[in-house]
Automatic annotation (TrEMBL):
It comes from Puccinia striiformis. InterPro entries: AB_hydrolase_fold, Peptidase_S10, Ser_caboxypep_his_AS. GO terms for molecular function: serine-type carboxypeptidase activity. GO terms for biological process: proteolysis. This is Carboxypeptidase. It comes from the Eukaryota.
Length: 416
């Protein structure tokens, strides 16, 4: 694995009890590691490995297309922070043991256990300094991160290490099914996605009926939110997927809609790389690699976790003053930027009216306009141009600048 000379890297397992071993990969900051913040990265799913983030998004290296070697990533986030990637829940990636997480709250409790043990080890404890820890995620991170933060806040009042959380960032998050399913309809039209019509007029007409009928998608999602019945929530999600999102998307890529669903970017070369026995030995992996596990999604399905909104949790964190960046690649379909932004508009918090009225500004990095943004209080929303679901893979320089400004407690701003 190619990384920066002189920069420490550790990988292996933390035993979190109950015969459960959670795999991690840690990369020390390239610059001033003694004072650099500690950053936790979690990929989404539910059930996808955080090594996607490490090896094809914001980690110190990228895997070559032929899976034989790696190259240095000049835009790695460990330029400014010590990066910690965790494979969770248990059985995802290289983690192994009894599966017992059926919701984001249960998964968050395991993340808390991991961090408590990790930060008690002398080799790692000093990385938690006055700059605290910053949480970053994407996709189902719109569920994971809030539960993980709440678990840390509640638990450290009772026991364990004090873990000051200084900021968070989530790109293309899944926050509010009611808002985001409704946004699929608009986003499928050129006037909203600014590229092309994804669905034709006939499909749009059928989907609109499925959305707005008195027993349709929106009515069922509202019933789920009001009653909280697991079966009703499951039925709502199944209906909305079958009659709204799937017909609108057609044969397009879920994660970068201008492409066909069979096109893959970023490259999946990391899968073959992590299946190599020499690589597994080098990083201390004791099992075969599971990139994404459908059965984890099925576990979460038993509690209808996917259908439950988390946007109110974000509102509470913002009211506490936590510096937060919610950003989205504008070519993603599944957690598209329109749905993410509308989720923020629907959120109740102290500055909701001011946020809605605030104008967008261009965000320029390295002489190029890479998107638009607005900031009110501790919240910044960024719409990133020409990026799919995994924003750092599409726009690495812009992503690094956003990360740098956030963890250094600067307001988001353009640079030359």
């Amino acid at each position: 694995m190619r990384t920066t000379p002189g920069v420490k890297t550790f990988s292996g397992y933390i035993d979190i009890g109950n015969n459960q071993s959670m795999f991690f990969w840690f990369f020390e900051a390239r610059n001033n590691p003694k004072h650099a913040p500690l950053a936790l990265w979690l990929n989404g799913g539910p059930g996808c490995s955080s090594l996607f983030g490490a090896l094809q998004e914001n980690g110190p290296c990228r895997i070559n297309d032929d899976s034989t070697a790696s190259t240095l990533n000049p835009y790695s986030w460990n330029t400014y922070a010590s990066m910690l990637y965790i494979d969770q829940p248990i059985s995802v990636g290289f983690s192994y043991g009894k599966r017992d997480a059926f919701s984001t709250d249960q998964a968050a409790a395991r993340v808390w256990q991991f961090l408590q043990t990790f930060l008690s080890i002398p080799s790692f404890s000093h990385y938690l300094n006055d700059n605290g820890i910053t949480f970053w995620s994407e996709s189902y991170g719109g569920h994971y991160v809030f539960s993980a933060q709440n678990a840390l806040i509640k638990a450290q009042k009772l026991q364990g290490h004090s873990i000051p959380i200084t900021s968070l960032g989530i790109n293309n998050g899944w926050f509010d099914p009611l808002v985001q399913f409704q946004s699929y309809y608009d986003y499928s039209q050129k006037k909203y996605n600014h590229v092309e019509d994804i669905a034709n007029a006939a499909t749009l007409a059928v989907v609109k009926t499925a959305l707005t009928h008195k027993t349709g998608c929106l009515a069922q999602l509202k019933n789920c939110a009001n009653k909280g019945n697991i079966e009703a929530c499951q039925d709502a999600y199944n209906f909305c997927a079958q009659y709204v999102s799937i017909p609108l998307l057609g044969d397009r890529s879920t994660y970068y809609f201008p492409h066909n669903k069979n096109d893959t970017f970023p490259s999946l070369s990391l899968l073959k790389y992590l299946d190599r026995s020499d690589v597994r030995r080098a990083i201390g992996a004791e099992t075969n690699y599971w990139a994404c596990r459908d059965d984890i999604g099925e576990d979460f399905w038993t509690t209808a976790d996917t259908v439950r909104p988390t946007i109110s949790s974000l509102g509470k964190l913002l009211d506490s003053g936590l510096r937060t960046v919610i950003w989205a690649g504008d070519k993603d379909f599944i957690c598209n930027s329109l749905g993410v932004y509308r989720s923020l508009l629907a959120m109740k918090w102290k500055y909701s009216k001011q946020f809605a009225k605030a104008p967008f500004k261009n965000l320029t990095v390295q002489g190029k306009v890479g998107g638009v943004y607005k900031t009110i209080g501790p919240l910044t929303f960024i719409n990133v141009y020409n990026a799919g679901h995994e924003v750092p893979a599409f726009q690495p320089a812009l992503s690094l600048e956003i990360f740098k400004q956030t963890i250094s407690r600067q307001d988001i701003h353009s640079t030359n």
